[in-house]
Amino acid sequence: MYVMPDGKIETINPATGKVIATYDNTAPDEVSKKVKDARAALGSWKKLDISERADYMRKLGRVMRKNREDYAKLITEEMGKPIRQSIAEIEKCAWVCDYYAEHAEAFLRDELIPTEFRKSFVSFEPLGVIASIMPWNFPFWQVMRFAVPTLTAGNVGILKHSSVCLGSALQIEQAFRDAGFPENIFQSIIGDYRAGEALVQSDIDAVSVTGSVNTGRRVAELASKNLKKFVLELGGSDPFVVLEDADLNQTAHMATQSRLLNTGQSCIAAKRFIVVKEVADRFTELFVDNTESEVVGDPLDPKTTVGPLVRDSQRDMLAKQVEDARTKGGNILTGGSKLKGDGFFYEPTIISNVTPEMDVLREEVFGPAAPIIVVDNEEQAIREANNSEFGLGASIWTNNIDRGMRLARQIESGIVSVNEMVKSDPRLPFGGIKHSGVGRELSEFGIKEFVNIKSVVVKDITSKLLVE
Fold first, then answer.
1. CA 295 → CA 290, 347, 349, distances in Å?
2. What is the spatial distance between Cα 112 and Cα 119, in angstroms, rounded to a whole number?
3. To the nearest 5 percent, what fractions of the chain are helix, strand and coil?
4. What would the pLDDT profile of 314-354 be if each residue is shown by its tens digit?
5. Is residue 421 helix, strand or coil?
6. Is 60 exceeded by the pLDDT of residue 467?
7. Of all residues in the chain, what percent carry a pLDDT higher than 70?
8. For the domain with range 238-418, which CATH number is right: 3.40.309.10, 3.40.50.360, 3.90.1280.10, 3.40.50.1000?
9. Which residues does the annotation mark as catalytic?
10. What fold, for 2-234+436-455?
């Protein structure tokens, strides 16, 4: 993404460095018009029976599957994700459509509450016009995991997507049209941060944000001024805890996948590898071997497993973090350099002998670099895992399931996986604590973030008329 002096926005293919397309910034008055159009569409949409809205979601899932390859290619060209991972992203989008089409009615059914009254219950009613500000790293999935439950609940949505993937923003809007959704139920706004701020300050009812901590703070500040609800899914520095009884071959393989998925550009990627010293040498050896076997290259080639960073500034930041570790005594076991040639490629990197003052531990590392921390025992491992301003995801690797579940309860995060990499799943709530965010997405918990949880009490009239 590059904002030109005239305010136009260029999207850039990170594998080649070449411009893909140029877009105009949406003016503030156009943002207001889109919100007004959304509010006009809300009345009829929220009156539909939830089963009717579910039918639209089924159609949207079919659109996703029909256009899977085209959508995946667009993702890869705009932000560099290896094509096999882009295809998997679209398949997941279809899954979330099917999931809420099947379960939303049960999630939002009136809940009867036993009281002394004739009847008392809780209803779940749509809030209204919900804005979303979404990032570039999962261009379709991040949007769909917000939009599908939000719209199924009877709200309407407006998207301000990242300037990196504006083609994806327009294509998602078109997908809703292709699925037959009524006009203005889902709209996209094209622009940079100024369009996002205008959207948050417009006549919306709530906003969902996935992005950096600074972005979340700014949106929360703007939304709070008018008491608008917000959900924030922000950064992560997920610990990957390896205990002495782990299956090291499997664990090292999963460490590589968890660190390098999406070229390490994921909030829930493993970012701190905390290993008990008894198995640290062997795990490190296997981790390096697995990492060096990954294929870095053209993301449109199905054989590629690691693509470019999204833009050159992102690669520069990663290079600075790695160099900081190097100068402070970190050992670069593999990688550690930019790759020459076109595109924004960086070698998959593993660093040992890391210390707390290094940037690779103090900051979120959004790229293919993995610091290894050696600890004495499980108690120290848990302390180290919790020693972060973030609390999004974590994983624990052990052959003792009871031990894993016990330690999972001690981890300070929104998600903990035992013997599995951290993933978002429509069936489970997704979100974090600390600086990783506020609120939840997905599952029954996610669909209830943007509804009015209304208590209704009905009492019999028992008074008798007084007759003189």
1. 11, 10, 13
2. 8
3. 40, 20, 35
4. 999 999 999 999 999 999 999 999 999 999 999 999 999 99
5. coil
6. no
7. 97
8. 3.40.309.10
9. 233, 267
10. Aldehyde Dehydrogenase; Chain A, domain 1 (3.40.605)
